[in-house]
Structure formats: C-alpha cells, structure tokens
Amino acid sequence: MAFGGGRTEPGNVKPSSATNGHAMDRLVGDHAIRRMCTFPIGPFQALCNPIFTKYHRTKQQLRRRQPGLRNVFPKSPFAALTVNLGPASVSPPHVDHGNKADGMCCITALGEFDPDRGGHLVLWDYNLIVRFPPGCCILIPSAVVTHSNTPIQDDEDRYSLIQYSAGGLFRWTENGFKSDLAWAASATSEDHTARERARRGRWENALKEFPLWKNIKVGNYTGRVRAEFWVDAEAGDISDLTDDDEEEREGGGDEGPRPQKIRCR
C-alpha cells in the first residue's frame, strides 16, 4: 500500500504487468520468503521500539479504515515490498525520499556472491562500508541516509528484498485520514499555528526515537533506566505488536577520512 504520486487516497501498488503480478503473488506466498521477511521484525521492535510502534499502529489504522488495502506480510509493520531480481542488483548512491524520513527501511540481500569481494552496503554520510552477505538483513533510515551497494563479480548473482512505508501514509493518518491539502482547507487558524509549532520541533523529537549505542550495548533498548523500564513500562514497550489477522495467515576533490569497514556475519 502507498500514498502519493497522484493518488487521492492510500491504495494498493499495482504491478507493471499481469505477468509481474502473478510472479509477485507466488513470491510473497512462498513460506521461506515470508519467514525471511518477518525475521527482522524482532530486532526492529527491540532496537527501535517507538518507530516500530508508529509503523505498526499506522498500518493497522489504515487497514481498519480501508479493508481493501493489501497486507503483504501480516506480521510486518511495513506497508510495501520491492523485489530486485537482478541478476546483479546494484544501486548508485541515493536516498529514498518517498519513505518516512524518521523511519526505517529493511533490506535483505540474497543470491550467490562472495561478500568479501562485492555487494557491500555503502553509507556515504557515515563514511562506512558494511559487509553485507546474502541472507542478512539491515535496517537503515533510507530516506535521509545516502546509500548504495558495490558491484559483485561477473559470474555471481545478487537479489534483494526491500520493505518500507511511504511517508504519505503517516501524513494521511495524522491528518485524520485526509491529504495535506484537504486538512489545510478545513483547519482553523489555531490548527495551523499548532502544526507550524510542531514542525519546528519535529526533527528534534524524531531524533529522540532512534536508539543510542550506549543503551543498546547494555540491553536498555528503550533508552530508559532498566529498573524504571521494568517497573512502569507501558504495554507498547514490551508487547508483541502484530497484526490482528496474523493467525489467519501463515506466516575528485579533497579526500576525506577513509571509510570504516564493518563486518556483518
């Protein structure tokens, strides 16, 4: 499901052809693919709980409002899936500007290639090169972090599964299931003033929802004191948030610093 690109309301993304649609149906119905695409949900919920909760609740609200919206993976908080079938999937440096800026994108690498010789994930803003073997998943804020991946060898194959949610879906929901234009037309002057005030502080509030390494390394995934967390944590902090119907379906210039290499085993 997506919103934007000329749509007047959220809707299902249509395949480019009937052949591609049939192929996508077979792929997302495959048991192994479904398990692979739901595997990263645990780390997402544990490490980025506020962001995960917002994704989950927004998706649930949309589907209750519009039952016809397709739920590709019932256990996943992401609204959409892109499949790159290669056979040598390589992307240049880019940002996914249509995704939620203060959100996450899940990338799963597949294929048969030597991860020591190619297929690395490059995070340009952080000066990082990350070893990215087939079968591994990575969560990144792809709307604001410039990323790419390095080429593989001529006799190798690389594919990828990408799960994400369009930023327009969150705006639609926060507007009371309206577009920005429709909201602005019906909002009062007080509403506009409050929204402008919220916009000025949005980036600071968004940063607070991302985890800090000092908390992650001691298991304090929500960024709160561990004792406080266990005494008065809200249900959303520790509950297994999944979809309501999950039981019904089976799951050339100056040189900067040298990039740091990270191994993903």
UniProtKB/TrEMBL annotation:
Residues 237-249 have a biased composition (Acidic residues). Residues 1-22, 237-265 are annotated as: Disordered. Gene3D superfamilies: 3.60.130.30. This is Uncharacterized protein. It comes from Roridomyces roridus.
